[in-house]
Structure formats: structure tokens, C-alpha cells
Amino acid sequence: MSKKLKQSTFYITEDLAKAITLKTVNSDADKSTVVREALTMYLARELDILEVMDATGQPDIEEQKRAAWDVGLGFMKIDVEPTGEFLEEVEKEIRGEITPEDMMLSWKRRHTNEEV
Fold first, then answer.
1. Which is nearest to 39 in space by CA: 8, 70, 62, 66?
2. What is the pTM of this model?
3. 61 phi and psi angles, rounded to 5 deg
4. What pLDDT is stored for residue 38 in this prediction?
5. Cα 90 to Cα 11, 15, 65, 81, 116, distances in angstroms
6. Are 103 and 93 in contact (CB under 8 A)?
7. 104 vs 44, 56, 93, 100, 112, CA distance in Å?
8. What separation in angstroms does the CA of 91 have from each of 57, 80, 81?
9. Over 70: is that where the pLDDT of 59 sits?
10. Summary mean pLDDT of the chain
11. How far apart are CA 92 and CA 70, in angstroms?
12. How confident is the model over 12-38, as pLDDT tens digits?
């Protein structure tokens, strides 16, 4: 499992921000370390699952999505060739940049006169 740090920005409540600051005052840890430790405890089950997936060689989420889309696109090509725009959206969905719901709204905008 990756131990490389990745910068992220999240919104938290004022009380959580104060609690994080209090924790840093009462320990030698900086705010990032406090948040990482809290998330590690909170997400312990999910981290265990990811560790097992890595150890067993199971594909990551993007690979699973790509495989599912490959099957779906294969069926789609029986009737019609997907557009480049649609294929770009598929790649964005695989990377987690958009949701399937976003894709449906985009499709409706392109193929109907309805304003979505």
C-alpha cells in the first residue's frame, strides 16, 4: 500500500479545526499528522481491505472500472460506435473525476432539447 503523501484539501467544522489545534498543542504532532492519524483510525477497516487487495493482486478501482466499461462499450458497439466525447467521459469516470450521474446529465444535454 502506498505510503507516499498526497496533498488534499477538505472542509471541516470549526469545532474539528479547534480540536485539531488543541491536539497539536498537547502533542508533538503537526496538524497534518493529527489528521492522518485520526483518518487512519477511522478508516482502519477500509485500509485493511486495500492491503488485502494489494497483497492478493486484485485490480485497483480504476482497473475494475476500466474492465466494466470495456464490457459495456463492447455491447454498445454492436449497435453504434461511441463518440469521442463519450469515450472522454468514460475515462473521466474511471479516474473518478465525474460520476455516472454526471455522464447521464451530459448525455441528456447533448441528445435532447431539455435543459438539465
1. 8
2. 0.46
3. -60, -45
4. 94
5. 28, 39, 9, 14, 20
6. yes
7. 34, 34, 12, 6, 12
8. 23, 19, 16
9. no
10. 84
11. 14
12. 999 999 999 999 999 989 999 999 999
Which residue's C-alpha cell is 458497439?
A: 77
- For residue range 73-106, list pLDDT tens digits in order: 887 777 778 888 889 999 998 888 998 888 888 8
Residue 45 in grid coordinates? 477497516
Convert 20-82 into a string of H (helix), E (strand) and C (coil): HHHHHHCCCCCHHHHHHHHHHHHCHHHHHHHHHHHHCCCCCHHHHHHHHHHHHHHHHHHHCCC
Lookup: cell for 63: 482497473
Q: How distant is the alpha carbon of residue 114 from its chain centre? A: 30
